[in-house]
Amino acid sequence: MSRILVPVDFSAQSLQAVRFAVAYAADRHELTILHVIQSFPSRNVVNKLGKQNIEKFQLEEAKEDLQPMIAILEEAGTSYQLEIVFGIPHEEIAKHATADYRAVVMGTHGYGRMTGYLKQSVSYPTIHDSKIPVFLISEETNADAFPWSKVLITVDGSEPAMAALQTALQLSEGMDVTYTLLTVVTPPVAYTGMYGAGWEDTATLEGWGKETNRSYEEFLEAKQVPFESKVLIGDPATLIRETAKAEQAGLIVLGHHGLGGIAGTLVGSVTFKTIHRAQTPLLIVKS
Q1: How many domains does the chain contain in total?
Q2: Are both 228 and 273 inside the same structural domain?
Q3: Is residue 75 packed enough to be buried (19+ CB in 10 Å), middle (13-18) or exposed (0-12)?
Q4: I want to staple 161 with a disulfide (CB 3.0 to 4.6 A). Which of 65, 169, 245, 255 is the partner?
Q5: What is the pLDDT along the chain (287 residues), one digit of tens a residue?
Q6: Are residues 124 and 207 in the same domain?
Q7: How far is 27 from 21, CA to CA, in rounded Å?
């Protein structure tokens, strides 16, 4: 039985992440629920009360506050173990997110890139540091649609996109799933150099998109997997979210190029833009 890592805090987003993980795990995967307690900030309080006493109080509070999630797991009869550790959340998650786990499932607040950085978002550094696939679940997701039956896979001709496609198939083994390949072409007038010079009209851009889709189509055809292909022109993050909603996709899959929060902000990472306000579960894969 493989394992899924589910980092949690006490938020509504984490509750949804647990529901998603339970629906996906069924009787095939064991869950590790990981809660990280951050060190108490005031050294004066620590000196007066003692580190051990403070950690004892924090541990008792954490176990009490985690009860709603434990109730979901117990009611579903899902195999799980609970780990509560002290440290910095994204660092502890990275330590746990090894090849021993099939994927990470965690809640996201869906902050914009800069807001997420300023508010010390845990999901952004987790995406950057994790070597295994990461599912991001927002509070607004529809739990009745968990885990997924329709998958929207965004592709751009890169190795991370092919890795994302392959991972989506692997994580969907044993499930009745249909796939949609989506390439979004940004007009060079809006972002010079992405597809090179020489475009003349919309048909040219669509042709580039169809050419981009072809290698992924050939891969799915060889696997005899049902799919359809789409090419759209415009802003990738916006069209990805809109297409997922129109297609009633239960999962959006993106290949991630591994840029950190600041670098991703400066170059306009599609991953970070898609996370912002996304209501569909996301699967982020690095090659």
Answers
A1: 2
A2: yes
A3: exposed
A4: 255
A5: 799 999 999 999 999 999 999 999 988 899 999 999 987 655 555 565 667 777 888 889 999 999 999 999 999 999 999 999 999 999 999 999 998 999 999 998 865 444 444 345 788 788 888 889 999 999 889 899 899 999 999 999 999 999 999 999 999 999 999 999 999 998 775 445 555 554 557 888 889 899 999 999 999 999 999 999 999 999 899 999 999 999 999 999 999 876 444 434 333 478 878 887 788 999 999 87
A6: no
A7: 11
Tell whether 127 and 237 lie within a shared domain: no
| Tokens, residue 219 | 């891969």
SS (H, E, C) 159-180: HHHHHHHHHHHHHCCCCCCEEE
Domain shared by 106 and 155, yes or no: no
3 state DSSP class of 153: strand
Final residue before a domain boundary, out of 121, 139, 157: 139
